[in-house]
Design goal:
With 416 residues, the protein is mostly helical. The chain is built from 14 helices and six strands.
Length: 416
């Protein structure tokens, strides 16, 4: 009985799996490239002459996994559309009323931490929003068909209206979630821009991933450890190092410049009231990025009546004791490329993502300083000052340079 290779018509093939299914081993990562080498041995039967194919050898060569290819566990993120789900207010209120003992900031952080798995379970339908929309669109068709069979039936008319409202609701949830992910403010909800949102989300995800960096000498870095060391070294040089002995401040030189009066000093050290905290929260856009805790300003606004006491007490504790709980002080730094051809670390722009409590405290401090900055900032400064615009200084500089060409002009500017 002879052996032949390269047969194109197979009757039977026996093979063994080259990897375990995901449900058996959750830590297994998919291979990008699998090379299979099959050696077929054709055994001709003496009875009917039909060939039987058996796989004697199967070899799999896995793709070399890089550190950035590892699938990481997704973190909790509170999307704004979760606040529109059923039983949302009931779930949040029940969880938040559980008593905890500790300092106000610790209590606030602990309650947010306890609420994460509860909201994650509540928002599970949003993970399959496309399937839910497809299913919801089938129900109106069936309800309308039943209505045709029995015209002017009030019960079936209400069923059609209910199914239609359900489709609209799921479409709005999907669009709201995509809008939050894409962070596009100039498109309004309700005009069906879901495909554009998907494209924007994909573009943002590609922009946030740093897969390769180059050093000044042209050496490329592809591993996660090398990229992290380069980023830390670069920004460490910009920030400087800690110095144990600082030079004293010349008090006499400081007194020669503009100073705050006693009324302004008392304004800066006065206790913060509830109205300032509420105003700072309102000024924060609902579409801002999530902090390390996964909550945005929309969560506080939607549940302000429930969590107001704990939030205000925790923020007032910071201004009273001048201490910030360590968990709220963490900041996520994201590097965004300035152009499509960003190769070096200097070609990336850092964006700092803070927790919502940190943002409220910063807003309150910024509002307080904004009331007194005009007294100590010179009139020549025109950038980042309320009421002034940098283009005014550009026009003024143009007129001054133009005046130099005029001879015998008594109003010509002369530098001193």
């Amino acid at each position: 009985m002879g052996h032949q290779c390269g047969v194109t018509k197979f009757r039977e093939m026996q093979w063994k799996p080259i990897y375990k299914p995901p449900e058996e081993k959750k830590t297994l990562y998919p291979m990008r490239e699998v090379q299979r080498r099959l050696v077929y041995i054709l055994k001709r039967s003496n009875k009917n002459g039909q060939g039987l194919i058996k796989v004697e050898e199967i070899e799999a060569k896995g793709y070399h996994m890089k550190e950035h290819d590892i699938i990481k566990k997704t973190k909790f993120k509170f999307f704004n559309c979760v606040a529109n789900l059923e039983r949302y207010e009931e779930v949040v209120s029940r969880s938040w009323r559980e008593p905890l003992v500790g300092i106000p900031m610790y209590v606030l952080w602990s309650k947010l931490k306890i609420l994460k798995p509860i909201l994650k379970k509540l928002s599970r339908p949003l993970a399959h929003v496309h399937q839910n929309i497809a299913k919801a669109r089938i129900d109106p068709e069936k309800a309308q068909f039943d209505l045709i069979m029995v015209i002017m039936n009030n019960h079936r008319i209400e069923e059609v209206m209910k199914c239609t409202e359900n489709v609209i609701r799921w479409n709005e949830l999907e669009e709201d979630m995509l809008k939050h992910k894409a962070k596009i403010d100039w498109l309004r909800l309700g005009d069906g821009n879901n495909s554009y949102f998907h494209a924007s989300i994909k573009s943002n995800q590609n922009a946030k991933s740093v897969r390769v960096l180059y050093m000044e000498d042209g050496t490329n870095m592809i591993t996660q450890e090398e990229i992290e060391n380069e980023v830390l070294d670069y920004y460490g040089k910009l920030m400087g190092k800690r110095v144990n002995n600082l030079q004293y401040i010349d008090i006499e030189a400081m007194r020669d410049e503009a100073q705050l009066n006693m009324e302004q000093r008392e304004y800066l050290v006065r206790p913060v009231n509830e109205l300032e905290i509420c105003k700072a929260l309102i000024d924060i856009n609902d579409q801002k990025s999530f902090g390390l805790d996964g909550f945005g300003s929309r969560f506080l606004k939607a549940n302000w009546n429930t969590i107001k006491d704990d939030a205000i007490t925790a923020i007032m504790e910071f201004f009273g004791k001048e201490r910030l709980y360590k968990a709220f002080n963490y900041t996520v730094v994201t590097l965004i490329p300035k152009s499509d051809d960003s190769k070096y670390i200097k070609d990336h722009r850092p964006i700092y993502v803070c927790t919502i409590t940190y943002k409220i405290i910063s807003k309150v401090l910024t509002a307080q300083l904004g009331m007194v900055l005009r007294s100590i900032i010179g009139q020549c400064y025109a950038t980042f000052v309320p009421g002034k615009q940098i283009q005014n200084q550009i026009l003024l500089a143009y007129e001054i340079i133009k005046g130099y060409a005029r001879k015998r002009d008594p109003h010509m500017y002369t530098p001193t």
